[in-house]
């Protein structure tokens, strides 16, 4: 059984154990080193890591805690919450534990901050992590201005299993930030990756919906690779997760919204499932 849950301040020993293990296992993935953290090895320090404004999560198997993650909420209302400190033990990878952990974080945000989005930074060359985030609905929005080796990814604040709607491929494609058929960096866009994705979607269909967030002024999508493949395959429609996005701040990759498209999106959003706060935490019991 795999499950994930929020940690309380009194759970700081669990967080400490996972954090120290993560720093020893993947030192390149964190902003602090094991040596630096050990200089702050006090109960006060570890309690702060599992106390507001942080929301900390742990994923467990029958053998005990095997992974951790945190939601960090910004001081400025104009900034987005961030998913940070994500780590899963090597023996629990590829078991569903990573997805259960991320689902718990996303579902928690959806219940408590449904009108926002979730951002994370990932090392560009860490392909396994990027593929995991993509499968959980995150899309690349650009490079991290604070670290050129990292990419920024975002997804909507809505339950991981939110109902999708079918929309015309060409409508969705109007709001893509880039054309992924035009190959960019060797790790971000490659012909081989698009070929593999084309084969997979052609065989199994598009299992990960595209994320389209909109308001009356503009729209954004996460799923530029999938749109490229849909057009390559000649798909008339694609599955889409719809959410409303605040008008401010406007992201650089936002595209002006066509009034006719707005009417289509409003009707589609009304027909899709309504976010129910009682669904929060569904990701805390995922088995995969």
Lateral strand order in the biggest sheet: 8-11-9-10-12
- Uncertain runs are 274-288
Strand elements, count: 12
The percent range for helix content is 25-40%
- What average pLDDT do the residues reach? 87
Strand content: 25-35%
Approximate shape: globular
The main β sheet shows up as:
5 strands, mixed
Question: How far is the N terminus from the C terminus?
Answer: 9 Å
Q: What is the N-to-C order of secondary-structure elements (H for helix, E for strand)?
A: EHHHEEEHEHEEEHHEEHEEH
Q: Which structural class best describes the helix and strand composition?
A: alpha+beta
- What is the gyration radius calculated from CA atoms? 19 Å
Number of helices: 9
Q: Can you put this structure into words, describing what you see?
A:
The protein is of the alpha+beta class and 288 residues long. Mean pLDDT is 87; it is low at 274-288. Helix 7 (191-204) packs across helix 8. The protein has helices at 12-25, 34-38, 43-49, 97-112, 127-135, 169-173, 191-204, 224-233, 259-271; strands spanning 3-6, 54-61, 64-72, 82-88, 117-123, 139-144, 147-156, 165-168, 210-214, 218-222, 237-244, 255-256. The protein starts with a strand and ends in a 17-residue tail after the last helix. Strand 2 and strand 3 form a beta hairpin. The protein contains nine helices and twelve strands.
């Amino acid at each position: 059984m795999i499950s994930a849950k929020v940690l309380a301040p009194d759970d700081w020993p669990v967080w400490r154990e996972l954090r120290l293990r993560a720093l020893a296992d993947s030192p390149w993935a964190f902003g602090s080193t094991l040596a630096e953290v050990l200089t702050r090895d006090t109960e006060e320090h570890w309690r702060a890591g599992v106390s507001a404004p942080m929301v900390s999560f742990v994923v467990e198997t029958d053998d005990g805690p095997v992974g951790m993650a945190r939601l960090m909420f910004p001081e400025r209302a104009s900034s987005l919450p961030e998913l940070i400190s994500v780590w899963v033990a090597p023996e629990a990878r590829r078991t569903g534990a990573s997805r259960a952990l991320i689902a718990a974080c996303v579902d928690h945000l959806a219940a408590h901050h449904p009108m926002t989005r979730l951002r994370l930074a990932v090392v560009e060359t860490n392909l396994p992590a990027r593929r995991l985030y993509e499968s959980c609905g995150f899309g690349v929005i650009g490079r991290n201005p604070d670290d050129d080796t990292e990419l920024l990814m975002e997804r909507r604040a809505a339950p991981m299993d939110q109902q999708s709607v079918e929309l015309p491929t060409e409508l969705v494609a109007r709001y893509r930030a880039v054309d992924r058929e035009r190959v960019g960096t060797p790790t971000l866009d490659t012909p081989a990756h698009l070929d593999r994705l084309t084969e997979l979607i052609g065989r199994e269909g598009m299992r990960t919906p595209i994320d389209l967030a909109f308001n009356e002024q503009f729209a954004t999508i996460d799923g530029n690779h999938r749109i490229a493949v849909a057009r390559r395959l000649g798909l008339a429609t694609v599955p889409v997760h719809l959410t409303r996005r605040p008008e401010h701040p406007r992201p650089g990759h936002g595209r002006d919204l066509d009034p006719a498209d707005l009417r289509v999106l409003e009707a589609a959003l009304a027909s899709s499932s309504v976010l129910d706060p009682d669904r929060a935490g569904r990701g805390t019991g995922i088995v995969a």
